[in-house]
């Protein structure tokens, strides 16, 4: 009888050996926590499609950030829900807009401890729900860029460390970089939603942010889910325009894209574990169909293993609390 000379099981026999041979690690500092803040509410409002997530008031937002900081999460991306909307999304750049209020509140409360990232888009702020201003039924790319410049400087002035343009307008990174530098914010980084797909996985987010288009869809500016080479092109364009970090969104159905981008560029790479990816885990766990803790671990490790340096995830706080205990999961 012939016996194997190579025995990979040798390094799986005990927890200490498994830890020694482990290739991928995850820390709370690798996680970015997306948070929704809503104008004119006194108490947080639960998001039905995203169990455990809420639209925060300014007070509850500060409490949530404080709780996450204690667990080691240090980075947060803010999405605003204004009380009033208009065709141009003017509350997005208003000094008294809800995200600007939130940035100042968090900066005053926590100083330089958290990394505050401001999502830059118009879909939550326009009465039509598109990511830019409309010319008839079409999003006007270049008029939208001028508005993005106003938003970027307003967010930076309010205390954002990182500006994250997410509308998938051509030239958005160059426009934002130009406006930030001209306003004296050369030190503010840009996290570019470089490869953002026109995905069905955003459904719960649109409830959370009140951002569903009233007519049409976003396939005219977000990427075709069939394309991977195009993602690398988009990423390289954003880097050439001045992006400091690039992102692939969504994550789980696009792990191949994450790997392709990671192999193509050297800048830090983020991936967004989006709302439906979160909601599916929560729904299955509520029915007892999965072990939620183990699935969350595998999801986040899988995104990191594909090549992401950082993960935007609604699981951030619960994952950070559980990471020290992951070894017991086997």
Task: Describe the secondary-structure layout.
Layout: H1 15-21, E1 31-38, E2 45-46, E3 54-56, H2 58-70, E4 75-81, H3 98-110, E5 115-120, E6 134-135, E7 138-139, H4 141-158, E8 162-165, H5 172-182, E9 189-196, H6 203-209, H7 229-241, E10 245-249, H8 255-264, E11 269-273, H9 275-286, H10 292-306, E12 310-313, H11 316-322
Parallel strand pairs: 1-3, 1-4, 1-12, 4-5, 5-8, 8-9, 9-10, 10-11, 11-12
Antiparallel strand pairs: 2-3, 6-7
Helix pairs in contact: 2-3, 3-4, 4-5, 5-7, 7-8
Can I get a quick summary?
The chain is α/β, with parallel strands linked by helices and 330 residues long. The protein has one domain: TIM Barrel. It contains eleven helices and twelve strands.
Give the spatial strand order of the biggest sheet. Answer: 1-4-5-8-9-10-11-12
Query: What gross morphology would you assign?
Result: globular
The CATH class label is Alpha Beta
Q: Per DSSP, what share of the residues sits in E-state strands of 2 or more residues?
A: 15-25%
Oligomerization category of the chains in this entry? single chain
Low-confidence stretches: none
Structural class: alpha/beta
- Overall pLDDT: 96
Specify Rg, calculated over alpha carbons.
20 Å
CATH topology: TIM Barrel
**Annotation field: number of helices:** 11
Can you tell me the number of structural domains? 1
Count the E strands.
12
Order of helices and strands: HEEEHEHEEEHEHEHHEHEHHEH
- CATH architecture grouping: Alpha-Beta Barrel
Helix % is: 25-40%
Largest sheet: number of strands, sense, barrel closure: 8 strands, parallel, barrel
The CA-CA distance between the termini, in Å, is 32 Å
CATH superfamily: Aldolase class I
